[in-house]
Amino acid sequence: MHEAMTFSTHEEYFKTVSPEAQALLLTIQQQVETLIPEATRCISYKMPAFRAKRVFFYFAAFKKHIGIYPPVTNDAELIKLLAPYRGPKGNLSFSLNQPLPIELIGRVAIALHKQAGRGL
Q1: Measured between alpha carbons, how far is 79 from 22 in angstroms, rounded to an integer?
Q2: Which uninterrupted H or E stretch holds 108?
Q3: Fewer CB within 10 A of the end CB, N or C, for the chain?
Q4: What global pTM score does this model have?
Q5: pLDDT tens by residue, 27-61
Q6: Which fold has domain 10-117?
Q7: Nearest to 95 by CA among 104, 84, 106, 103
């Protein structure tokens, strides 16, 4: 449904997903903004994203999961903790019918922010 549409704000995107997914996206958005106050909201690749100099965190709702991109590549301990959620390319997938591990997602946001700052 929303894949073909283009959005200019997170809110526009959120209105196109189920109320259940919307609540999870809002929780993720709040977590990122709390942990990384210099991050600004943007849309990139037609997904809600966050930028701090460069775009470092993307998140989106799908029929059965929330996806978070890109993969964490430089924190071995965190990568190990993320194993149950990692897809073949390292992207993260959180089922809509499971509790959202928001603290873990916060750690992902911080790691991706650092990764982007190093140009990795």
Answers
A1: 26
A2: helix 102-117
A3: N
A4: 0.92
A5: 999 999 999 999 999 999 999 999 998 999 999 99
A6: Aspartate Aminotransferase, domain 1 (3.90.1150)
A7: 84
